[in-house]
Amino acid sequence: MLFHGISKLSHGIDGLVAMFDRQGLPGMIAYLVYLGEVVAPILLLIGYRTKLASLAIAITMVVAMIIAHADEILKLGDHGEWALEVLGLYLLGAIALLFLGGGKFAVSTSNKWD
Questions:
Q1: Angle (CA) 96 113 7, round 5°
Q2: What distance in Å separates the CA atoms of residue 7 and residue 13, rounded to the nearest whole number?
Q3: What CA–CA distance (Å, rounded) separates 74 from 83?
Q4: Helix (H, G, I), strand (E, B) or coil at 71
Q5: Quick one: pLDDT band at residue 113, thresholds 50, 70, 90?
Q6: What predicted TM-score, i.e. pTM, was given to this entire model?
Q7: Which whole number is the average pLDDT over 12-41?
Q8: Are 24 and 87 within 8 A, CB to CB?
Q9: How far is CA 88 from the centre of its chain?
């Protein structure tokens, strides 16, 4: 996810703002993608507030599926894979971390969000 976020940091999110506007939603919501694609992955990497960060990633993936890829949810790709396979893997991985937490290598393990 972090590489997607870095791409959005370097190229901007004007396309996302326009996409939200076309859906009738405030374009400012698009700026939350920085939380789900930059801040949350960094928190996961260092093991701080793992469950909270994974929740942010999961929400980001659900929103991406609904807003940007709604027409592909039930489609297959060119090689027989689910068209949203990568989004699905990010979503299910985030859900797994939400339930399991950061483990013994987390920076802090004293909080219910780790």
A1: 65
A2: 9
A3: 8
A4: helix
A5: low
A6: 0.88
A7: 91
A8: no
A9: 10
